[in-house]
Amino acid sequence: MPLPAIEPLVEAFLGFCRVEKGLAANSIAAYRRDLSDFCAFLRKNNISADEAGGSIGKYLDAMYGSGLASRSIARRLTTLRNFYAFLLREGRISADPVGSIPMPRQGRSLPKRLGTEDLERLLAAPPANTPGGLRDRAMLHLLYASGPRVSELCGVEVRDINLEMGIVRVTGKGSKQRLIPVGRQAVAAIREWLESGRGALLKGRQSRYLFVTARGGPLTRQAFWKNLRHYGLTAGIGAPLTPHLLRHTFATHLLEGGADLRSVQTMLGHADIATTQIYTHVMRTRLRKTIDDHHPRA
Questions:
Q1: Exposed site from 6, 26, 121, 297, fewest CB < 10 Å?
Q2: Nearest 5°: CA angle at 220, between 34 and 162?
Q3: CA distance linking residue 291 with residue 285, whole number of Å
Q4: 230 annotated active-site
């Protein structure tokens, strides 16, 4: 079955993901990047849209040859699987060229985390005498206290936080919402930001977002990432910091403190418990210590 130019098909697929599947903007942007890379490969090698499906093996070989990590290759292959499954459902192709291609093997790396001393220095790094510093301090406290994804953190609105009950509502992947408890220190940092920093930064402007810029929009993921790295250097932390590192720290500290895996899954917003099971090494370590400390013949 002949295919038209592949770019319009990509746009149709992205529209399907946005309208019918309700995927988040970040997920759609990731699909767009992966498919744009695939289209660029086809153009570079003069491969037509009709031949694109049969050239996926060559595309994967090129990615392996470029030294791309197996995790990144697996993500791009997943994107292509979803794209061609869409084309098959729409009747644009008669056979799926991707379904039989095996996923690259990936080693499961254990998540890194911050130690308690590094974490305390990081939380204290933002200046407490500027509106921006109060905002960043509140964001760091909330990220560590509740473990949201950075996109969820930046998208929190004022109406989403209940300081009296200590609960924040975040909107995750696929526009799914969940409620996460917020600890006392994070509540105090957010309250100080609301009372002493947010109004001073907005200067009369209105905004529905909790963590705002001077123009009234939400602080972007990229800006928060940059600020986090700056505060990491200020705190004397050698390794580059990422928001995901604080999310991992949140989950690991919870499990070390006695939380069960299902509760952590709910708070992290993982749809599948298998995603959360990367933290089972923490559970095993805790069980080993429990036996060593309490069993008479340990």
A1: 297
A2: 120
A3: 10
A4: no
DSSP-derived letter for residue 219 is P
Token pair 């998208």 in the structure block, residue: 155
Q: Spot the catalytic one: 121, 229, 230, 244.
A: 244
244 is catalytic: yes
Catalytic residue among 173, 230, 253, 281: 173
Strand duo 167-171 + 161-162: pairing: antiparallel
- Dihedral sign for Cα 177, 183, 188, 189, please: negative
Write the pLDDT tens digit of every residue in 189-227: 999 999 999 999 999 999 999 999 999 999 999 999 999
Tokens of 188: 């105090």
Residue 173 a catalytic site member = yes
Cβ atoms of 245 and 140 closer than 8 Å: no
pLDDT digits (tens, 9 = 90+) for 143-196: 999 999 999 999 999 999 999 999 999 988 778 899 999 999 999 999 999 999
Question: Is the alpha carbon torsion for 110, 116, 122, 128 positive or negative?
Answer: positive
The answer for residues whose C-beta is within 8 angstroms of residue 94's C-beta and 6 or more apart is 1, 88
User: How distant is the alpha carbon of residue 263 from its chain centre?
Assistant: 19
Number of C-alpha atoms within 13 angstroms, CB side, residue 269? 22
CA pair distance 231, 123, nearest whole angstrom: 9
How far apart are the C-alpha atoms of 163 and 181, rounded to whole Å?
A: 10
Q: Is position 284 annotated as part of the catalytic site?
A: no
pTM reported for the whole predicted model: 0.63
Burial 133-161 (b: 16+ CB within 10 A, else e): bbbbbbbbbbbbbbbbbbbbbbbbeeebb
φ, ψ dihedrals at 178, nearest 5°:
-150, 155
Active site residue 253: no
Residue 11: name the closest of 109, 81, 75, 83 by CA. 83
Q: Which residue is catalytic, options 149, 198, 231, 248?
A: 149
